[in-house]
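Shipment paperwork, digital attachment
Item: protein structure file
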Amino acid sequence: MQKPIARRTALLASAAILALAAARGANAADPLEKITVAGWSKPITEITHLLVEPDKGFYKANGIDLAYVPGAGGGDAIRNILTGQADVAFTDPGAFFAALDKGEKLRAIYDIYPQNVFNVVSLKSANITRPADLKGKKIGVYSLSSGTRQNLLVLLHQAGLSESDVTIVVTGLLNFAPLLQGQVDATAATDTGLLVGQHKGIGDVNVMEVRNFLNVSSDLFVVREEVYQQKKPLLKRFLKAYRESAAWMIANPDEAAGLAVKYAIDGTDRPTNLEVIRLRNAATVSAITDKNGLGTFDLESLQRAADAYRKLGLIEHDIRVSGVVSTELLPSRSKSTP
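Attachment content:
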């Protein structure tokens, strides 16, 4: 992103916060309404903009008391909203589709990362260069409920393979040790996970990027239909605050990298933080968000993904995406919003 655009985005986000604070004025003493986000991960660097609320106050400025519940995959995030442990799930489309397929009443309300960030990584020595080469191999995933597994299955499908053609091994988040130790032949990861692995010395690797086969969103905000119907004004303020925090991180990656040292469990190295944040910033934008604002859905792409999951056999029923996605809570695109 060019520096003039980044500076303008930062100024717009700051102006939005100041305007809202001024609007609250006499109501500044009103109690904040709590929103709990169920994450797919622990508090890691790539979600720094969610973690820096004590310093930046994006949510407080919008009348929200923000809380975060960690998870181990998008399936965990969905389970946490279904059990009432959280209001909003930070989850992947695969977990969303799987829950809908089981009859859960859910609604996607914001496209967090419109770019597919998943990949499958192997050492050069394994000579795994195409999906067909994965047959009979042991492949690591973050967890069985994570987007790494779902996207691995998408990749296998490109070669006419299924889960039964490989052995899936749970290796944990950002863990390339099993690959280096020969416990797995390849591992499914994300772009940021690969970056961290490269910094830790995994060496020369082959990388198959899932977006070259299916470039669907990596993560969405999802809520239960009941919550969607009952808390629209609160959810709208939440999305506005999130958009402002995402715009801040896009415009201020250096500041975000510094704060990640303070708030992210994997944020001990500031230069690495900066690279992770830049990757995640890049996944946050698309041609559609450039036109209509951060969080805007590409419904055609999401429908193609739902159709692909049905064809893969990952879900049993057809999903009409337009019926389970809402755009009405997205912040309006104006001079004061990025």
